[in-house]
Design brief:
Shape: flat
Structural class: mainly alpha
C-alpha cells in the first residue's frame, strides 16, 4: 500500500492546514451568524399578515434553496463585480465573496427552521400573555423565545455543521481554507492519499467538537418539571433561560 505515514503526519501538522482550519472556522461563524440574522427577517416576512411580504419571503427561500451553493459562489465572485462596479476594487477579497454567498444561502434554510419553530408554539399562549397585560416584547422574551430556542437548537446545530462542510466549496473563489490548502500541497507533492486523509481528519475533529457542543446545548435548554408548594402542583421551566 502506497501510503506514507511520515508524509501524512507532516501534512497533519503543516502550517498550511492549520491556517486553512482557522479560515474555515472563521468563514463558518461569519456566514452562520449573518445567515441567521437574515433568516430571522425572512421568517418574519413569511409569517406576515401582508400578502406581498409573505410572497417576498417565500421568493427568497425559493430562489436561494434552488440555486446550488457552488453557483452562488461563482456568481458572487465573478458576476457580482460586473453588476456592482464598487466591488471591483481590492477590498473585494475571496473571504468576503464566500461569506456573502454562504450567508444568503444559509439564510434560506435558517428561515424555514425558525418559521417551523414559531409555528410549533401555540398562539393561545401569546393571547393569554397579552390578556394578562404583557407587552409584545415581554411576550416574546418570556413566552416565545424559550420555547423557540428549545425547538430550533437541534436543526440549527445540524445546519451549522452542514455549513462547516460546505465551506470546502470556497476553493472555487481561491479562498485559502482547508481544501484550497490541501489542493495546493497536492499539486506540488502528488501525495493524494496522505493530504486528503489529513484534511478529512481535520473536518472529522471539527465536526466532532461541534457535535459535543450541540449535545451540551440540548441538555442545557430542556424543559423540566419543578415542584411547587401544594399537592399536585408543578411548574414547567426551561433550564438555561432562568424562567421565573
Amino acid at each position: 500500500m502506497d501510503f506514507h505515514l511520515d508524509i501524512f503526519l507532516q501534512a497533519l501538522t503543516s502550517r498550511a492546514l492549520r491556517e486553512g482550519v482557522l479560515i474555515t472556522i472563521s468563514l463558518t461563524i461569519v456566514s452562520f451568524v449573518a445567515g441567521l440574522v437574515i433568516g430571522v427577517g425572512v421568517a418574519l416576512l413569511r409569517g406576515s399578515r401582508v400578502a406581498a411580504l409573505r410572497a417576498l419571503g417565500w421568493s427568497y427561500i425559493w430562489i436561494f434553496r434552488a440555486i446550488p451553493t457552488i453557483v452562488l459562489l461563482f456568481f458572487v465572485w465573478y458576476a457580482l463585480p460586473q453588476l456592482l462596479p464598487p466591488l471591483r476594487g481590492p477590498g473585494f477579497q475571496p473571504f468576503v465573496a464566500a461569506a456573502i454567498a454562504l450567508s444568503v444561502n444559509e439564510a434560506a434554510y435558517a428561515a424555514e427552521i425558525i418559521r417551523g419553530g414559531l409555528l410549533s408554539i401555540d398562539d393561545g399562549q401569546r393571547l393569554a400573555a397579552r390578556a394578562l397585560g404583557m407587552p409584545p416584547a415581554t411576550v416574546f422574551r418570556r413566552i416565545v423565545a424559550p420555547q423557540l430556542v428549545r425547538v430550533v437548537i437541534p436543526p440549527v446545530a445540524n445546519d451549522f455543521i452542514t455549513l462547516l462542510k460546505i465551506t470546502s466549496l470556497a476553493y472555487v473563489v481561491s479562498l485559502r481554507e482547508v481544501m484550497t490548502q490541501t489542493q495546493t500541497q497536492i499539486a506540488s507533492s502528488f501525495r493524494y492519499a496522505e493530504w486528503y486523509s489529513a484534511a478529512a481528519l481535520y473536518y472529522l475533529v471539527l465536526v466532532s467538537v461541534f457535535m459535543v457542543a450541540q449535545a451540551w446545548l440540548e441538555r442545557r435548554y430542556v424543559w423540566t418539571s419543578q415542584a411547587r408548594s401544594g399537592p399536585g402542583r408543578s411548574l414547567g421551566i426551561l433550564r438555561g433561560f432562568g424562567a421565573r
